């Protein structure tokens, strides 16, 4: 009996939301929706040592990028059965990867995913380097971030927080526009 009342109540909420044009999970219809990565890899050491941003939408492109990033033999990386290069498997029918390589840097432990918001006509993805201080020296790095996101047909705009002082508001700089 209680289940029936709860089910009826939930049905009424969803019908009311539909009539009012409100998506019950995302808020008002047409408003921006937050996107979170399914998986995120980030670190200080990539074999790709030049600044590069890309949108990966196929297994072939992912395997090639992974081999470049890790320094794996590209031919071995293509072996999907034994997978000696350790290429993570991604469902490219439902997902895509946004890859960012920051190039040569100092004292950076990787790239943090801060937010991604899907609005009308585009997705804005915001990132920040994970910088730190050292005393009397510096650590060489080639920071990267690889983010598995829900697949979208909208262009992706990458913005990086380039504000370097603690406690200050972010300063966003557009780094790339990634078309479909």
What's this model, at a glance?
With 180 residues, the protein is an alpha+beta fold.
Please tell me about this protein's structure.
With 180 residues, the chain is of the alpha+beta class. It has 2 domains: 1-29; 32-178, no CATH class. Helices cover 19% and strands 39% of the residues. The chain has a 5-stranded mixed beta sheet, with no helix packed on it. Strands 4-11-6-5 form a 4-stranded antiparallel beta sheet, with helices on one face. Strands 1-2 form a two-stranded antiparallel sheet. β1 (22-23) and β2 form a beta hairpin. The termini are far apart. The relative contact order is 0.19.
Tell me the major beta sheet: 5 strands, mixed
Shape: flat
Question: How far is it from the N-terminal to the C-terminal residue, by CA?
Answer: 50 Å
How many strand units? 13
Total tally of structural domains: 2
Number of helices: 3
Mean pLDDT level: 85
State which percent range the strand residues make up.
35-45%
Q: Radius of gyration, Cα only, in angstroms?
A: 21 Å
The neighbouring-strand order within the major sheet is: 3-8-9-12-13
Uncertain segments: 1-29
Helix content: 10-25%
Q: By helix and strand content, what is the structural category?
A: alpha+beta
Order of helices and strands: HEEEEEHHEEEEEEEE
């Amino acid at each position: 009996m209680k289940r029936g009342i709860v089910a009826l109540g939930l049905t009424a909420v969803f019908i009311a939301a539909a009539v009012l044009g409100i998506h019950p999970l995302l808020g008002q219809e047409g408003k921006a929706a937050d996107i979170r990565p399914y998986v995120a890899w980030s670190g200080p050491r990539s074999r790709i040592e030049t600044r590069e941003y890309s949108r990966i939408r196929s297994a072939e492109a992912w395997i090639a990028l992974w081999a470049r990033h890790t320094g794996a033999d590209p031919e071995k990386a293509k072996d999907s059965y034994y997978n000696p290069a350790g290429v993570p498997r991604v469902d490219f029918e439902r997902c895509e990867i946004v890859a960012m390589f920051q190039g040569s840097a100092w004292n950076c432990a990787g790239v943090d995913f801060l937010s991604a918001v899907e609005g009308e006509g585009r997705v804005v993805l915001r990132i920040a380097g994970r910088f730190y201080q050292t005393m009397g020296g510096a650590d060489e790095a080639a920071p990267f971030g690889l983010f598995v996101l829900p697949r979208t047909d909208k262009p992706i705009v990458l913005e990086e927080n380039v504000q370097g002082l603690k406690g200050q508001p972010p300063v966003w700089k557009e780094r790339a526009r990634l078309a479909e």
